[in-house]
Amino acid sequence: MARxxxxxxxxxxxxxxxxxxxxxxxxxYPEVHPDLPARSRGVIALVEENCTVCMLxxxxxxxxxxxxxxxxxxxxxxxxxRPRARNVLDRxxxxxxxxxxxxxxxxVCPFDALFWxxxxxxxxxxxxxxxxxxxxxxxxxxxxxxxPAHEVGAEPPKELSAGSRPAPARRTAPPAPxxxxxxxASVAQESAQDTGVQDTGVQDTAVQEAVGKAPQDAxxxxxxxxxxxxxxxxxxxxxxPPRAMRDIRSIRxxxxxxxxxxxxxxxxxxxxxxx
Length: 275
Known about the structure:
Structural class: alpha+beta
Oligomer: single chain
Shape: elongated
Distance between the termini: 116 Å
Order of helices and strands: HEHEEHEEHHHHHH
Largest sheet: 3 strands, antiparallel
Number of strands: 5
Helix content: 25-40%
């Protein structure tokens, strides 16, 4: 198709005329703030109460722009416990002149101490002033927008389901079996009650004699045939240790040796027999 000379110029002038006739919309910044997206990355805010000084954000930062200092404090021991040590945050600073706003530190934080804030008005005349400490980062935490609402029919967050879950019941140890008197003593007591013996001295003597005979009878065992030993680890047959490797000629049956070995032996034995 033949192109009309000046076609591109006419299209460009048409776009220009269209924008000239359209009413322009100008936002008077900074009096009017722009409408930013819900997930805009303005600045990183810190919630100091949630930070446990795990150093994950500083280790995962590809630009090494996070600086953390801390010290340990020993908490007093509760009743029946022992003292515990915890980390106390001394310094948390982010150098935004090096930060590339990748958000890795926010993703890896396991205790929700870092958040994205839509604030972006923290420009400075000197690049060295872009190093902000935890006090300034904590002020930006108040500007963090709330999380969006869940969709209709979606599963509730794991944090809420774990908090509303009933606590598991504690397992109680089974009651210990009550050890009764010896068999001989119980028999003596029953016989004394049946016969109507009221003399406590005679009854105590019978009980003592029965208790003394009980271990002797248990040591002698029943009068019948010998009781079979209990089947346990001791009654299992012991495995014999592996035998040492013998000569292969003793393992093979006679007449199964290779022909070469037999022929060489015959040839060797033949001349010696003749000699």
